[in-house]
Amino acid sequence: MTRDETRARDAADPLAEFRKGFVIADPELTYLDGNSLGRLPAAASLRVREVVDAEWGEGLISSWNAGWMDLPARIAGKTAGLLGAAPEEVALADSTSVNLFKLALAALRAAPPDRADLVTDDLNFPSDHYILRSALDLAGRGGELKTVRSPDGISVPIETLAAAIDARTALVSLSHTAFKSAYVYDMAAVNEIAHRRAVKVLWDLSHSAGALPVDLDGSGADLAVGCTYKYLNGGPGAPAFLYVRSELQEQFENPIRGWFGHADPFAFDLGYQPGAGIGRFLTGTPPILSVAAIEPGVDLLLEAGMDRVREKSVAQTEYLIRLWQQDLQPLGFRLNSPREAERRGSHVSLAHPEGYRINRALIEQLRVIPDFRLPDNIRFGVCPLYTTFEEIHRAAEACRRVVTERLYERYSPERQGVT
Ligand SMILES: *Cc1c(COP(=O)(O)O)cnc(C)c1O
Q1: Looking at ligand 1, which residue's alpha carbon is closest to its atom 14?
Q2: Which of 92, 96, 100, 371 to mutate to test the pocket of ligand 1 (most atoms within 8 A of CB)?
Q3: Do strands 223-226 and 117-121 pair parallel, antiparallel, or not at all (unpaired)?
Q4: What is the pTM of this model?
Q5: Which residue in 209, 217, 311, 373 is a FRET match for 382, CA 20 to 30 A apart?
């Protein structure tokens, strides 16, 4: 596709108007890292100022009763609309890591006493591995973390996963979309396999939420957590979400009991009484500034509709893969994401032996921002609400230049800082 055709494609894009809802401080910057930190919605910038100046500055403590107390649950209810969940099944709190810990430990403790092991895979986010191990340690049943190996670093065959779930398994915990390869599990199929063996599944939706339609209720999901600062554009370190299916909420106990999970926090009763419903999985005071910043990004996705978002995401990742095939494969780039669109999330990983140095040259010389994940992956994230076909074209062209003109050679292979 020529640059003109690319522009025509952007002009015909039914979601093109949504880009105007985001702060694009520098139109020359090609930003393909919304899978790590989504762009700033213009409305979030205004909203945060209002919360700071009017609600905090003027309203002071009275703002808790004038809306802050209900704010996290209200925005969680909207977020549920992107996840195929009911509003009363989703809460916003803490970080993804902390929520994963709370739900993993709750589920391990609620499992039958003869079941202690936790099953995951080696595509899962390393922090999830650390958290799952700490939950296993604290559960105190001597359970093991059984890590299913991906044969190709891209995907895990569902039969291989199924074979790892047995009578000792207390819980399965997986990233729905793998952070390196973007491989997407068939959520309904995994839930069914686990449920047949009476095992619950805890999903990490960090790279799925806002990137593709998720149907937690419809796929029979039990538990889930996920991030709001990636495809939901909620802002750096924004609180995460957690999901517990309605019927299961009373069966699990929050291992970090605090006053916000209490049935009546302002009774200041020294005894703990868990709240009814999803609120029992809360712990302490919500970070209101960060919570408020989440709403505009969620609103934009709800307005666009996840089906349309997914349609454009697939068109854009397919486009990047075509450009790879044409121009980049001959230069030593390997496709490290599933070729099949149905099993691929909203980013494309291109691996190259010089991946780290190529990534630096892209950022520092050609103003193209992907990110780098060891050992050799350059991830190109597509956020259909603001990513253009032209940006994808520019990114592929930049990769070609960095290699053919050897622009990467001026960097040392030593890694530094946030990649
Ligand atoms: C981004 C991401 C996280 C982030 O966790 P934090 O607690 O916000 O640092 C966790 N899990 C996965 C799979 C992620 O992609």
Answers
A1: 206
A2: 96
A3: unpaired
A4: 0.97
A5: 217
